Amino acid sequence: MKPLKIIFAGTPDYAATVLQALLRDTDFLVQAVITQPDMPAGRGLEVRESAVKKLAKQVGLTIWQPQKVSQIIDQIRELEPDFLVVAAFAQLVPESILKIPALGPINVHGSLLPRYRGAGVIQAPILNGDSQTGITIMLMDKGLDTGPILAQQAIAIAPDETGESLYDKLADAGARLLSPTLKALAQGQIKPQAQDNTKANYVGLVKKEDGLIDWTKPASDIERLVRAMYSWPGAWTWLKGKQIKITAVDPIVLPLNVHQPGKTFIYNNQLAIQCGTDALVIQRLKMEGKGEISGKEFINGHRQQIGQILGQ
RNA sequence: CGCGGGGUAGAGCAGUUGGCAGCUCGCCAGGCCCAUAACCUGGAGGUCGUCGGUUCGAAUCCGACCCCCGCAA
After folding, report:
1. Is A165 found in the same domain as A30?
2. Could you tell me the distance in Å between the CA of residue A296 and the C1' of nucleotide B57?
3. Are residues A130 and A15 in the same domain?
4. pTM here?
C-alpha cells in the first residue's frame, strides 16, 4: 500500500520514542516534524534542542519550530498529510489545524482516558495508588484530551514503580500501539469510541512545588509521593535551610509513632523519618550540591544531624 | 559571561588566625561469644581534583583549568 503521510508534533523523549517507531515502519512517511523552539536550559543556560529535534535532525527530516503552531498552518496544509500525530507537544493545537489531516489528528496520551486528562498524567496514578494506568490513542478534537478513543493498552504499575520508570514504559507502549492503530484506522477497521465524560478527571502539569513533602501526612502517602516524583521534581524537604531530595524509601512503612513528624532517627541501623502516621526508612537521598547517597552513608557523614526535624 | 554548592583514606563527611591530616562506616588481623550486622584490641589505607604562584612551611592564601551537583529554564 502507499505509505501514509504523517506530520509529527512532539517535544521530549517520550515523543521521540514514538517518532522513532513511525520512522522504522516503511508503511509511514514522516513528512515533517513540529517541535518546541530551542530554549536556553540547563546549567549555564545553554540553548538545548528537544529530543524530537535531535532525532529528526539525525534522519534529516524537515523541522518546524514555531512559537505558536498556528503560524505554520499553510505549510502543514501544503503537505496534505494523512495524519497529524501529536505526542507530548506542549502546545494546544487549534481546531483549524486539526481539520487538515485527511484521516485525522491523532494523540498518543499517557493514561487510560477518560481518567487523567491533561498534563501530569504519569505521576497521578502512582500518587493515587492505582494498580494500573496505560496508553490511549485517540482522535483529537477541540477539547483537552476529550476526543474519541481508537485504542488503549493498560500497563500495570509495579509496587516499586517510579515516575521515571513509568515514563519509559508508557513511551514504549505508545510507540508499539501507534503503528497498528494508524493502519487499522486507515483501513476503516476501527470505530472510534466516544469517551464517557462522567468518568473524566483532569490533572495539571507537575511543578517543583508538588514534590515538597508534608511530613504530617501518612507514611504510605509520602512513599507514593517519593516514587511518583522521581526523578523530577523529586520529593524534597528542608534540613536546616537546605533542600534535601528523598530519592528512594523503603516501601514497607514502620508502625512507629513516637516522634514528632519530620524527625530523623536511627532505626535498626538505618535512617528513618517519622511521618504523621507511621515512619519511613530512607534508602537514598540527595543534599544540595552533593551527589546521591544512601541512608547509611548519611548516618556516617552527618551523625550530628540525626534528631533534626525535617521540613523547616 | 544566569545564580549557587562541592571535589580530603574504599564510602560518607570534618578540618581557613597557614605549622606532624581527623571522624563514622567499611576492610585486614586477633579476642570475646552458642552465635552475630553486637562488643573489645591492634592494623593497613590519603600525591588533600589538576597545574602554577606566594611562603621557611599550603588541604588551608592567590591565579588558571578539569569534573560533579542544586536552583532556574
Report:
1. yes
2. 39
3. yes
4. 0.91
